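INFO worker-7 received task bundle
INFO bundle size: 2
INFO processing item 0
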Amino acid sequence: MKKIIIIFSIAFTSLQSFSQNDTTKVEQYCEVVATPKLFSNKVTIDINYGEEKSFWRDNRLKSDEGKVKKFNSVVDALNYMGKDGWLFVNAFPVNIGTSQVYHYGFRKIFLKTETAD
């Protein structure tokens, strides 16, 4: 009888822990903004994941070593996003004075447990 109770409790515990794994998937979006630098052919790349911006905190994208990630060109930034699993959705220019700022939209599927609600 003890063996049956132990087997039942182990099976129940394993089923309970299995049911707690949420496999719900959610779609997340981000935006890559390419702004031309003054008096240069280079661009500044900003990646907006929807996080809160703060004047006091550095929200720039950082490498694994903690250094600010720099891109050689817009294409370099777009390739970076593709390697990270982001899928291109749309691009559009916004005229600011005499220059154009390009916005690139991306999406990616995450497990709900991987996202910050």
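INFO item 0 finished
INFO processing item 1
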Amino acid sequence: MIGMTEELWRRGEIMKTTTILCDLDGTLVDSRRDIAVAFQHAWRTVIGGIPPSTTAIAQHIGKPIEEMLSELGGMLSPSLLSTFLTAYRRTYTRQDARLTRPYPGVILTLQALSTFALGVVTTKESGQAEIVLRRLALIPFFQHIQGGSRGLRLKPAPDPILAALAALHCAPSYALMVGDTPADVLAGKAAGTQTCAVSYGFGTREALLLCAPDHVIDSFGELVGLVRESQG
């Protein structure tokens, strides 16, 4: 896909990429089964009845758990919501990412991108993200893991991306944000980075294209050719 960024590269009006930020769920790893197990357990424990299916839950992965719950019909009081979140997090931690797998080509691609500064920007709490990355032997590739934290607005706000860039000492114009949902693309745009949407994750291609990402790739491995082109 030829976007505005490629046109600017041709005219020499854009900085070379030095830093790549990646969303976690739906971009680096397929985590739908572990998330569904934890979500369904919390639903049965706190709400009761039949929980949403794994497919239904997967359509909302990438959003805060509170928002996922609301959109799936789980309207709870503040106290019950707190109980739900606690049950979800405990079960997710116990799962230890045992059902989560890297998408095809992720490890080889990260090895090929080792000359870039690499970071993860996720809505997950940093501790939960580290569980996944350690379990799958991905954590050594990344110099910074930016999870959701108090005081930072979540994607699509630019806050977590800007926090990650500050930790990596990188200006937004040198960075590329890679993600599978509109929130990832919009957050990158708001932060002033280049943006790359992946079509294989939890977001739909149609919704991603509406956000006008600079690039769209159909496999993580395509990222290597894309960033090498940016180096001229």
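INFO item 1 finished
INFO post-check item 1: The chain has a mean pLDDT of 92.
INFO post-check item 1: The two ends are 18 Å apart (CA to CA).
INFO worker-7 idle
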